[in-house]
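Could someone model zinc ion with this protein?
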Amino acid sequence: MTQFCLQDDFVLILGTRGSVPVSGGEYLYYGGSTMCVLLCLAGEAVLLDAGTGIRSLPGELLHLPRIRLLLSHCHADHIIGLPMCPYLARGGGRLDIYAVQRGGLDCKGQVARLVSPPLWPVTPEQMPVETVYHTVQDCFRLGDVAVDVMEGSHPGGVSLFRLTGNGRRVVYMSDTVIDGETLPGLAAFAKDCDLLLCDGQYSEEEFRERPHFGHSSWDAAAKLGRLCRAKKLLVVHHDPWHTDDILKEAEKNMTDSYPDCGFAREGMAVRL
Ligand SMILES: [Zn+2]
Ligand SMILES: [Zn+2]
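Reply:
Sure, complex below.
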């Protein structure tokens, strides 16, 4: 995996679920861990969010001198896995964490809200790895990867990330509303990307019941994917009430009309 990581550009889905982790036989196909995606691009190993899926970070990556973590926002489902990230237990490594300022808190302050006593016994600083925090704004660089940030539509705010390097472009849009108002801006941001990871927590009917919860529908994700001409679309942030049977049927309906899309599954790898 090390050679693979340094020489190839790929995405590995570590967690797919939104809101809370789920377990049980009806969740085995798509997975029950909350959002975490590993992106290896232009020689950089980048984690997108730190849900419970982060626990499955491949062991082959633990020797890397540095791993980056981009936090879309610090709702618990996107950060609760951080204390159990296997990389944090590695002596001599360095974890760089990036987040936009939210709620008057810088990056470190947001992480510390959950990952410190009394909600967690230790802070990241008490782990063997060095932790470096970066409070970012609308664009920054990770080595040879350029990162652009767009503000999404979500309670408390959310950062949508566009990562470009080595001639490839990946867009991560978890936890955001896609509707008539937001669609044009989102399509411009994600234009011609190689891979779009897009919130699709709800069916159309569920979205109509919860238009202000800060999430999108499967149909809206497909509409965005087509409009921005994403080479591939993966729907992420699956609703905790959606079993494998529900998601398989929805995925089939979507792929019947839009072949270059699918629903993210834990352990799925996409070569860019
Ligand atoms: Zn979420
Ligand atoms: Zn959220």
